[in-house]
Amino acid sequence: MQNDSTQKTDDTQENRKTIVNELRSKWGKFSVKELTALTGKDALVSKLQSQYGLSKERAVEQVDALLKGRTF
């Protein structure tokens, strides 16, 4: 039986895997390795700016829309 902290870690990892898969579906230029190496939303926004030439504002809008309040 898992304790609460183990369950929370499992849920966080599963949530991150789901988000990475959604990111790959939307932005195919990124590899899974690149996406899993990102340390958070700001890093993802920066990566979108550099890979897709998006303005910071547009990148933030797109990331927020995809994350729908979830933490990355």
What does it look like?
This protein has one domain: Protein Yjbj, Chain: A. The chain is built from four helices and no strands. The protein has helices at residues 4-26, 32-37, 41-52, 56-67.
Quick gist of this model?
The chain is built from 4 helices and no strands.
Give the helices and strands, then pairings.
Blueprint: H1 4-26, H2 32-37, H3 41-52, H4 56-67
Helix pairs in contact: 3-4
Task: Report the sheet-strand fraction.
Answer: under 5%
User: What is the CATH fold-level name?
Assistant: Protein Yjbj, Chain: A
CATH architecture: Orthogonal Bundle
Largest sheet: none
Number of helices: 4
Low-confidence stretches: none
Q: What is the number of beta strands? A: 0
Annotation keywords:
72 residues; mainly alpha; Protein Yjbj, Chain: A
